[in-house]
Every structure is written in structure tokens, then in C-alpha cells.
Specification:
This protein has 13 helices and no strands. The protein is mainly alpha-helical. Helix 2 runs antiparallel to helix 3 and helix 5 crosses helix 6.
Length: 240
């Protein structure tokens, strides 16, 4: 930070230094300062793909998802090979139900490189979201042949197997994903659903509670204290 500030004192119009300063602010978890630095960098150089991407990440974490998608699109138009950019753009398109747009860019990537691991993962996810599990499965199989030790891929693979009723295989893939990433909350929660579908309630119910951590969990119009399992002692119990 000291060296970047000195560089900017010497040249206030140094776009790359403003972008790098934004990265440092990100590491310091100073979101507003990071946004200001990235926006300043882009005013000086609108073609700075990394600044667009990182600004998109900040907006995404702050919940400004439409702004995030805009910057991911700009970054992708400028430098599509930035690591994790394709995944984040795909997730943005899925969130806004722009499935055709996501499918189109991923097909273009795969036309150029049929072994593009991230594109195979992402197109499988798009097909999974639009309820085409058999097609999604084929892309996940291809991605697994390239890198079968990717926790996200294993989780998504398991979800598709679960959708197809192949519960034992699904649980095995969730287990493999969790072994690679012990705090993989999404895989733990999805595995609980597979356990419940197998009527394995003892293993299913505990991790099912992880649904409460999901930021997208539907909000109730009124919130009540959760029942702790004790005898209500004359109080009423609302089953919602």
C-alpha cells in the first residue's frame, strides 16, 4: 500500500496502480475504498479487464448483483481467459435466468477447446438448472476425465445423480467433495437431502439445518423463536 500510494503521488493518472491499490483494499476488506480505486482506474482506462472483474467481485459480495454482472460482461469481452471469470459470469447469468446467454458463451468456449474444464463444469450447471440432468451428466463426465478431484464438480455431479434417482452414487460423490473441502457447506446440505430421500433420517436431519445459513432462504413475513425440542409447557407450537 505504501509503495502504491507513492506511485500515485508521482503519477495520479496511473490506472494500473489505482487498480492494484483496489486489490490491496480488497485484501484489507475495505470494500468502499476498493470500489473507489477500481472505478478511478476504469475512468482512466476503461479497457482494464482485471479492474472490471475485481469490481464485479466487490459488487457481487455486496449484493449488487446486476452491477456485478455488467462488470463481468465487460471483463469477459476484454479478456475472457481471466481465471474464475467464466464461472462468475455464468453464475450471474443463471441468477438472472439468462440461461440462453450462458449456454451460448459456453458453447463458443467449447467449440474452441472441447477440453475446457471450467466451460464443461459451467455448461453442466446451466443444464442442471434448466432441468436437463441427462445432458448435464455427460458434461460432468467429460469434466471428471480432466480433473476428477475438483470439489465443486463433485458436488454438482452428485446433485445431477440425485436428480436422476441414483442416490448411492450421489452420496459417494458428496463424500468425495467433502473430503476435499471439509467446510463445504453446500455439499453437506445436499448430502443431507440425499440421506433423507434414502430415509436415512439419523444422518439426514443434522446437516439439513445448514439450510438456515443460506442467504437465499425464503424470508417469512414474521419471525418466531425456533423450538428447541423441549416440552412447550402450555405454549403453542407453530409448524410452518
Amino acid at each position: 500500500a505504501v509503495h502504491l500510494d507513492r506511485a500515485l503521488d508521482l503519477n495520479p493518472n496511473f490506472a494500473a496502480a489505482h487498480a492494484a491499490r483496489g486489490n490491496v483494499f480488497l485484501m484489507l476488506e475495505s470494500q468502499q475504498a476498493a470500489i473507489a480505486s477500481f472505478e478511478h482506474a476504469l475512468r482512466l482506462d476503461s479497457g482494464n479487464a482485471a479492474a472490471h472483474f475485481n469490481l464485479g467481485l466487490v459488487h457481487q459480495s455486496a449484493g449488487a448483483r446486476e452491477l456485478a454482472m455488467h462488470h463481468f460482461e465487460r471483463a469477459y469481452a476484454l479478456a475472457p481467459a481471466i481465471p474464475d471469470l467464466l464461472k462468475n459470469l455464468t453464475l450471474s447469468y443463471i441468477e438472472f435466468e439468462r440461461y440462453d446467454d450462458a449456454h451460448a458463451i459456453l458453447q463458443r468456449e467449447l467449440a474452441q477447446n472441447p477440453r475446457h474444464f471450467e466451460a464443461l463444469k459451467c455448461i453442466g450447471l446451466v443444464l442442471q438448472k434448466i432441468h436437463r440432468p441427462h445432458e448435464a451428466l455427460q458434461y460432468y463426465v467429460s469434466a471428471s476425465a480432466i480433473n476428477g478431484a475438483d470439489a465443486e464438480l463433485l458436488n454438482n455431479f452428485a446433485v445431477v445423480l440425485q436428480d436422476l434417482g441414483r442416490l448411492d452414487e450421489a452420496v459417494a460423490n458428496y463424500d468425495a467433495a467433502i473430503a476435499l473441502k471439509l467446510d463445504f457447506t453446500l455439499a453437506l446440505w445436499h448430502r443431507s437431502l440425499a440421506y433423507l430421500l434414502r430415509h436415512d433420517f439419523a444422518r439426514g436431519w443434522p446437516d439439513y439445518e445448514l439450510r438456515l445459513l443460506n442467504a437465499d432462504r425464503p424470508k417469512r413475513p414474521l419471525e418466531f423463536a425456533r423450538w428447541d425440542g423441549r416440552t412447550p409447557n402450555g405454549k403453542k407450537l407453530l409448524i410452518f
